[in-house]
User: What shape does this take?
Amino acid sequence: MRKYLLLPAQAAVMAAATFVSAILPYMLYGQVDSGVIVKSAQWLQWTLVPLSAGVTAYFLTRRGINRYLCWLLPPAVYTALPWAVTGYAPLAGVMLVTCLTGVVGAAAGEVKNQTDQDK
Assistant: This one.
């Protein structure tokens, strides 16, 4: 039962990655050149968020949490947080890539768990 406490930790990691990549640029307008903000925000959204989803899904699956639960939370957090804070939906392509990397991470964790059991 204690292992399910890792799901809020995964949500916190994804919320931090989403905040840095999708919400923080809105707060920096006027502080920094807008071209730099847009380029860095898009770069972070396309790399940081999907990578966080894959890595957290992998490690949670390795800890014994159901692989279907592990990949569902990252795209949900990435979608809900910017929408709730800014009122705008995040990039749909990033959300789909986040789903894909979450599925791949959870599948890799499941394969690793099965390989360890066979030994």
Summary: The CA atoms of residues 45 and 65 lie 26 Å apart.
